[in-house]
Specification:
By secondary structure, this protein is mostly beta strands. The protein has helices spanning 2-19, 24-27, 53-60, 83-89, and strands spanning 29-31, 44-47, 65-74, 93-121, 127-156, 183-186, 190-197, 200-208, 218-223, 228-232, 238-245, 251-255, 264-269. The strands form 2 sheets. An 8-stranded antiparallel barrel has the order 6-7-8-9-10-11-12-13. The chain has a 5-stranded mixed beta sheet with strand order 1-3-5-4-2. The longest helix has 18 residues, at 2-19. The radius of gyration is 29 Å and the shape is elongated. The N and C termini lie far apart (74 Å).
Length: 270
């Protein structure tokens, strides 16, 4: 009986390990900070999917100090599970990347109670009663789980630089954009006013169905010459992207960096 209980315990431990929402980003954390920081009340969680985390950091967050890093191999975890830990560390931003490693196959044994009843007869063949035998039947089960290499950087804005994903129209010296871009553009969530700032084309939200956005918030910025720039996702994740007017006259935004959704957005001029 003890053996059976032990096997069941191991099975349920395995199940909880694979399905729990606790953060391995905390369990495998390594600090690189020379001091402790005060806890923060808010932290941006930016998930870059299969992108290279060092590349993401160098391209988009090099103005931020790396408080510490996490790295582990296991079932996919939601980076949002690391939010409370990131706040405890005093991080302003947490970036993460995940890359598929393997499908891990494993076996486990379960035991099912069984009963059997046997009739008992005397030497003359007369029925005198029955006996019940109780036992357990063991079943070998197979299962699999996808495992991913998962990395996370906890970042601190030590120089108090206003990040691009928090900038608004007030942070830019704007003028009228070239005719190709000038005006009001719209998709199914945002209405954007496009202007010019220096050599860049900039788009500022005027109205949004997303409560995270306010009038004047920067939605995108790109070079008028190369068409390369940044697009801010709904949760303000900055994504390196390519901008162009397609053959239908729409402003098309193609997300780069191997971003996890591998999608594009289009805006129509009003």
């Amino acid at each position: 009986m003890k053996k059976i209980i032990t096997k069941l315990s191991l099975f349920f431990c395995m199940f909880m390990f694979l399905s729990c929402a606790s953060s391995s980003y905390k369990d495998f954390y390594t600090s690189s900070a020379p001091m402790e920081f005060e806890a923060t009340e808010n932290v941006y969680i930016f998930d870059y999917g299969t992108a290279n985390i060092d590349e993401v950091y160098q391209l988009l967050f090099s103005d931020f100090f790396i408080i510490g890093k996490s790295g582990f191999l296991g079932p996919m975890e939601d980076p949002a599970d690391a939010e409370d830990f990131a706040k405890e560390l005093g991080a302003d931003v947490f970036i993460s990347c995940q890359k598929f490693y393997e499908t891990y196959n494993y076996t486990y044994t379960t035991s099912t109670p069984t009963t059997s009843t046997t009739s008992v007869y005397d030497s003359k063949g007369k029925y005198i009663g029955s006996t019940t035998t109780r036992g357990y039947e063991e079943t070998l089960n197979t299962a699999s789980v996808n495992r991913y290499n998962q990395d996370g950087y906890f970042l601190k804005n030590v120089n108090h630089v206003k990040p691009i994903f928090e900038k608004t129209k007030a942070d830019f010296d704007c003028s009228t954009a070239p005719k190709t871009y000038a005006g009001i553009w719209k998709d199914d969530t945002y209405t954007v006013e496009i202007l010019k700032s220096g050599d860049n084309i900039v788009g500022f939200v005027t109205t949004s169905k997303n409560d995270n956005w306010n009038d004047g918030d920067l939605k995108f910025i790109f070079s008028e010459v190369t068409g390369e720039g940044l697009y801010m996702m709904g949760n303000r994740t900055p994504i390196i992207s390519k901008f162009e007017i397609n053959k239908f006259g729409f402003l098309e935004v193609k997300l780069g960096l191997g971003y996890k959704y591998n999608k594009s957005f289009t805006f129509m001029k009003q």
